[in-house]
Amino acid sequence: MSSRDRMRRTLIAYDVPDDRRRLRVARLLEQYGDRIQYSVFVVDLLPSKLLQLKSGLKEVIDPRADSILLCDLGLVKTLTEADFSYMGQQRTVTQQGPMIL
């Protein structure tokens, strides 16, 4: 199984009341995926990269005040347009192209 076959799509939503921490969370998430709503991102990652992202988020947030929701949507290779659709204005989610190592 190639590494691309193990990639999972995760929907991440956050509620961070502090402006500075919220900006740091957003900047970190932008390194991993696509913003589809103001505080919602979609990331397609290998499980090891998701752990790395979670570790980075733990360093940024205040767990007493902030909330981050991570929803595993499944393996990227099995998702179809019907599994991930919009109503109203659509946002672009980067399609994973060929991996070049």
Task: Compose a concise summary of this entry.
By secondary structure, the protein is α+β, with helices and mostly antiparallel strands. Helices cover 26% and strands 28% of the residues.
Q: Which strands sit side by side, in order, in the main sheet?
A: 2-3-1-4
**Strand count, sense and closure of the main sheet?**
4 strands, antiparallel
CATH class: Alpha Beta
Structure annotation, total helices: 2
> How many domains in all?
1
Low-confidence spans: pLDDT under 50, at least 5 residues? Answer: 97-101
What is the molecular shape? globular
Fraction of helical residues: 25-40%
DSSP strand count: 4
Order of helix and strand elements from N to C terminus: EHEEHE
Q: Mean pLDDT score, rounded?
A: 88
Q: Strand share of the residues?
A: 25-35%
Write the layout of secondary structure elements.
Blueprint: E1 8-15, H1 19-30, E2 33-37, E3 40-45, H2 47-60, E4 67-75
Antiparallel strand pairs: 1-3, 1-4, 2-3
Helix pairs in contact: 1-2
Structure write-up:
It is a single chain. This protein is 26% helix and 28% strand. A 4-stranded antiparallel sheet has the order 2-3-1-4. Mean pLDDT is 88; it is low at 97-101. It is built from 2 helices and 4 strands. β2 and β3 form a beta hairpin.
